[in-house]
């Protein structure tokens, strides 16, 4: 998934076909891990590790 900085839970949810609340829970869970403290940092780390690259 290509993500733009500043995308809100509603937009994330629409893209993934989940509710905004569920998207928010996932974002919170990601930010609770020591790998990232902000959404932008989480996205940057995901890009660096090629986590969501399509094969």
Mean pLDDT over all positions: 81
Described by strand count, sense and barrel closure, the largest sheet is:
none
Structural class from helices and strands? mainly alpha
H-E order: HHH
Q: Radius of gyration, Cα only, in angstroms?
A: 11 Å
The count of domains is 1
In angstroms, what separates the terminal alpha carbons?
A: 12 Å
Helix content: 55-70%
> Looking at the structure, what is the overall shape?
globular
Number of distinct helices: 3
Q: Can you walk through the features of this model?
A:
One of its GO terms (molecular function) is DNA binding. Residues 5-46 form the HTH luxR-type domain. This protein has 55 residues and is mainly alpha-helical. The protein has 3 helices and no strands. The chain starts with 8 loop residues before the first helix and ends in a 6-residue tail after the last helix.
How is this structure best summarized?
By secondary structure, the protein is mostly helical. It contains three helices and no strands.
């Amino acid at each position: 998934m290509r993500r733009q900085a500043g995308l809100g839970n509603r937009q994330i949810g629409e893209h993934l076909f989940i509710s905004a609340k569920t998207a928010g829970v996932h974002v919170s869970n990601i930010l609770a891990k020591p790998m990232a403290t902000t959404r932008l940092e989480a996205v940057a780390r995901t890009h660096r590790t090629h986590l969501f690259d399509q094969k």
